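Internal QA ticket QA-208
Title: Verify multi-chain structure generation after dependency bump
Assignee: T.L.

Test input:
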Amino acid sequence: MRNTPSKPFLKWAGGKTQLLEELEKRIPEELKDGKLPVFIEPFVGGGAVFFHFNNIFNFDKCHIFDINEEIILAYTVVRDDVDSLISQLDDLSSEFLSSNDIARKEFYYQVRDEFNHSKADVNFSRFGALWTERAAQLIFLNRTCFNGLFRVNTQGEFNVPFGRYKKPKILNADLLRADSDTLQNTEIHHGDFISAGSFVSERTFVYFDPPYRPLNQTSSFTGYSKNGFCDSEQRRLARFFADCNAAGAKLMLSNSDPKNIDYDDDFFDTLYSDYKIERVPAKRMINCDATKRGEISEIIVTNF
Ligand SMILES: C[S@@+](CC[C@H](N)C(=O)[O-])C[C@H]1O[C@@H](n2cnc3c(N)ncnc32)[C@H](O)[C@@H]1O
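Actual output:
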């Protein structure tokens, strides 16, 4: 057992840290018996679930996917070039932390501009000289930006303003090394969730965490990428879920519960009527209006 457990190295919209306990309670027995040696996450995001399950189980092989090319680049750099990443992040961190407030803000926007301008020169499908620098910039921006979220505008530019934290922890070298260790058994794929299909068999456990179905107008934030995830995408995913079920895999999926807003909304109950659907409490903002924040439920769908 490592001293530092692996955990997300980026803060990412929809992170599942709050739901880990509920998910863990429901894992298939076969996983504990070592009969599911392959783990697949078609919507890995920040990887809270991926890292957590890898701390508990020794998978022979993992496959992670995301449509967001920046996060896929970052995972690959953490896996394959962690020492150089740590050293570059250390440089960014030292410069930032040794500056006064005005200089910090200037430095933040300088890194953000550099990150956006260099995008055109990066070949996202092939590890190259610019990758490690880009991953360091992404982690730096994620740690120092407002609310710590990744968000791009319609041109695909990172557009989150400066965050004003007193002493942000920009570099956590032990965590990056732990994550790098964990990722050694993992194939990292950039692409649509459908491409996970070729790795699914009766030896796999698949956890799906698609972008939430918006609970209402004000929560219709889909800032993960330029592409939104509308109801027809949720239906396409349900068809893929059925294919994975037919392939004999053990499956678990989570999403927002539309019944939080409209008790008669049976969208997921209909979509996943062939499987087990449970509702569990989750702490998540349901509304921008602070008075309406509180505990709501999420759904967990399993095929076992
Ligand atoms: C809810 S987040 C996952 C959160 C993650 N499980 C965590 O705990 O941090 C959903 C992810 O799906 C990705 N995504 C959106 N559409 C996708 C698609 N068609 N195929 C694969 N990934 C997609 C987004 O980029 C985002 O990172």
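Spot checks passed. The chain has two domains: 17-68+175-302, 74-149.
Status: verified.
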